[in-house]
Each structure stands twice: as structure tokens, then as C-alpha cells.
Write a structure and sequence with these properties.
Helices cover 40% and strands 24% of the residues. By secondary structure, it is α/β, with parallel strands linked by helices. It has a single domain, classed as 3-Layer(aba) Sandwich (Beta-carbonic Anhydrase, Chain A). The chain has a 5-stranded mixed β-sheet with strand order 2-1-3-4-5. The protein is globular and about 40 Å long. The relative contact order is 0.22. The protein binds zinc ion.
Amino acid sequence: MEQYVLRLACADGKAAKIFFRWLEQHFGPNCYPDTLTNLGTDGVLAFGDLEVKARMRDRAQQLIFGHEITNVFVEGHGDCLGNQVESDTHRQHVLQACNVVEGWKLKTKAGRPVNVIGVYVSKRREAVEVLCGHLASAATAAD
Ligand SMILES: [Zn+2]
């Protein structure tokens, strides 16, 4: 079964490969990640300008409807060009960013709230840490 998820991620590609690998382990080979980016998206969502955030929200909702998305990932990573802070601060920014995205009240095509999942990839790119939210299984995600 084909499935899409949405990543609100950094334009910096450092974390992408490990995240894609992790995604495949959890959602299988037929999971396609749509991606909206900024430089340092966790920081932009946590503190950025309202217009930029509103544009992201609108594009997110469009992708969620269009691809019947249930899972929305907010991704932060270490050694980030766009948000140059220490790891623990990054983790805080991811959590704050998730609160902002929760506040958008994004809805699945079936009218349910989306799952917002905060993830962090450390500087050494060894693992994907889930900071908040829960993964809906592929079956649940089908809505
Ligand atoms: Zn980055």
C-alpha cells in the first residue's frame, strides 16, 4: 500500500538520508516523504516570522489533503546551518515547533487531526530520536 508522510525539515540535507532509512524501517518501502523546508525549520517554526509560518501551514494542509497524509514529522538535526544551537536547545526547538504545528489544527482528508511527531537527528547522524508524538501504523494511517 502506498502511503505519504509529510516532513517539515531543514533545507540542509545532512539528516535526510538517515531519516529516509528510518522511515522505511517503520513504514515500509512504499512510504513517500513529502517535504517542506526552510533553513533550520525547527527554529523557523518555533520563532520565525508569521508570514513564513502561514505559508508553510497552507502548503502543509494542501499536501495532507492531496496525499491523504496522517503523519507529519517536525525534524531537527545537529550541526544545522540554519539553526546553530546546541543539541538540547535543538530538541527544545523541535518540541516548540511541534506545539506550533499542533496549533495549526491540520486535518486529514477524513477530518481527523494529523499526528505531529517531533524527531531529532544528532550531529553524528547515528539515529532518529522521537521526541514527541506517536507513529500511527500503516493500517491506522489509512484512515
Ligand atoms: Zn539544518
